[in-house]
Amino acid sequence: MLVARHGDLNSHGNGAIVAFVTTVFVNGMQISTLGDNSLADSQCGGDNPITHCNPKTTVGSLSVFAEGKGVHRIEDFRLCGAKTSTSSPNVFCG
Length: 94
Ligand SMILES: [Zn+2]
What we know:
Number of helices: 0
Bound molecules: zinc ion
Oligomer: single chain
Strand order of the largest sheet: 1-4
Distance between the termini: 6 Å
Structural class: mainly beta
CATH architecture: Sandwich
């Protein structure tokens, strides 16, 4: 699947990833891994669950790692149930 990076968004709208990794880059951006924080997505606020306000990455590759954490990819889930919806256009991992 295509690799997610710092700033990639989720399927609820917005929710840009705040990448933790500082040594691995894809397309000139920090690669995203399991457990990365995120900015609030479009469902943050009101009576919605607070998980939309920091929809962390909750899935990573079981075979490709950066700084010891599984690489997060497009279509992988976030804490609030959204999926990461943007990614590198041309870098894949399993
Ligand atoms: Zn959400």
